[in-house]
Structures are given as structure tokens and as C-alpha cells.
Amino acid sequence: MKYGIVAFPSKKLQDLANTYRKRYDPHFALITPHMTLKDSFDASDEEIKSIVQQLNELASKHAPLTIHASRISSFFPATNAIYFRIEPTEQLVVFHKKLQEKVPFGNEKHTFVPHITIAQKMTASEHDDIFGQLRMIGVDEKDIIDRIHLVYQLEDGSWTTYETFRLTGAE
Length: 171
Known about the structure:
Elements: E1 2-7, H1 11-24, E2 35-42, H2 45-61, E3 65-74, E4 82-86, H3 90-102, E5 115-119, H4 124-137, E6 141-145, E7 147-153, E8 159-166
Antiparallel strand pairs: 1-2, 1-7, 3-4, 3-6, 4-5, 7-8
């Protein structure tokens, strides 16, 4: 089965992202707005038991994540995805690194760029037009994420939560 690890922002930030995703993201119905902490990976039922233990341990040591969506950016020319850029604070970078060490499944497909996707799978001209408009609007939202989620993919391509882990530590 295919799994991933994500953090869902507050309803306020999700609602803001969804104002764009409804129009510009074909994955709108597959998963709510999120910050990917670990790209999708395959794991067996036995491996998932171990991953759940590792995530419980990690969550018990780390404090809630303070995030700041500071601007609208793009992965162009690699892809035509547009996103809310989350400032890569030391806390977030350290948490991501420890997560990769604790859950060494799958390969990181990209360098970790904390973000919440708001538009993707557009033509180049659509991307240029929409990106220009959204950059002028901008974003400046701070949030605290107090839990992470192990999610899995259903047969229809949508994602759902397998287990949730509260960040309750001091780091």
C-alpha cells in the first residue's frame, strides 16, 4: 500500500489554499491542503507497525511546528506547480531530517521545500498567467501545527488518514 506523511494546517489556512485549489488544482478532491513531510512510499502491514512506533516516538519529542506561509512561489521550470512557500525554519528543517532518519522508507524525490500546493498540472501559458496574478495577491499567514498524519492512498487515488500523531515534546 502507498503511504505518506503530511501536516495539515489550520482550517483558516486550508480555506485560503482551497480558494485557489478549487480552480487550479486537479487533486483538489483527493486530499485536503497539506504540507508534505515525507513523499509517498510503499510499506507492508508489518513495516507500518514499525513506522507507527517511530512516529509516536518522534512526535513525543518534538514541539508543535510554527510555520509561516510567506509568499506565493512556483516550481517552474521543473513543474508548473504553484504553492504557498513555508519558511524553512530551523525547527522545521531539523524535524524533517529526523523524520527521514526515523522512517527510512522510499526515496526523497526532491529537496525538501516546505510548501502547500495551490495549483498544478497547468499549461505553461496558464502557469505564467495564474502565477503572475497570485504573486500580486501574495500570502502572509502564520500557523501552528500540533500534529502530523500518516496517510494512505485509496483505490480511487484519494488519500485518507491512517493515524495521527500529536507533537507534544519540547524540541
